[in-house]
């Protein structure tokens, strides 16, 4: 594996540029997320680094944009240090973050730490514009609905959510846009944000909702998250807007996972394990997303949660308060 990795011309160039040598002490493949990127833990001069080789790109996965956002986040000490980046070849080398404990949801101060990290991230200037986030999500929802993975009418609640959020004035900031648990690392001292391929300017509540849906599910934790982010207790309209975007985040995950399962799995109904149960398994380090059935269960759990919330009285109240 080491030799084959070294044979990649852009990898050799990156190693020589970053370290003055293409010789690796060690090279070990790592399991990645859903992007399909090839990940390696490499060692040069006795120090470990992360080597990432990008897959085929599309409109939302452009290394030119992703590497630019990563560099800005790295300069703000939110992302690992970049040692080499070649967007044309899709080759990236960064510092390797040794995680001390992946069970982030069990840490009491986590909501505060995430709020502070997002406050710093959203203050970064110069993140590029790409698309309207809601419109891009609408396209992905349509793709998921046509995939045949979920029952017909599974996204019936989405139009009401899209309509409510479209009435809000966008609050565009430098946004990560994919803060799932795999993209938040804890080295035992602080948090790091990784995998910036989906980053562009989007509404601030996209990231806040992603953090809240996993790490601030209780009212007290949500209040700590928002207080750390705003530097003061959140106002009713801000809490209402977060409630709406928490449903957006649920729909995002349901659509992404469902569309990615086309031809691999199919659900006869929306029934399945609860979202809390799945998140507990993820927090315990179980490979929940390693199988099509695990990914399908997650899509269904996210969709059930969003649908129940959108159809509740709390949704209508939040929509009115946010507007």
Give a verbal description of the structure:
This protein is of the alpha+beta class. It has 2 domains: 2-95, 2-Layer Sandwich (Phosphorylase Kinase, domain 1), CATH 3.30.200; 104-322, Aminoglycoside 3'-phosphotransferase, Chain: A, domain 2 (Alpha-Beta Complex). Helix content is 47%, strand content 13%. The protein contains 12 helices and 9 strands. Strands 1-2-3-5-4 form a 5-stranded antiparallel β-sheet, sandwiched between helices. Strand 7 (184-186) and strand 8 (191-193) form a beta hairpin. Helix 4 (110-122) runs antiparallel to helix 7 (204-215) and helix 5 (133-146) runs parallel beside helix 9 (236-260). The longest helix has 25 residues, at 236-260.
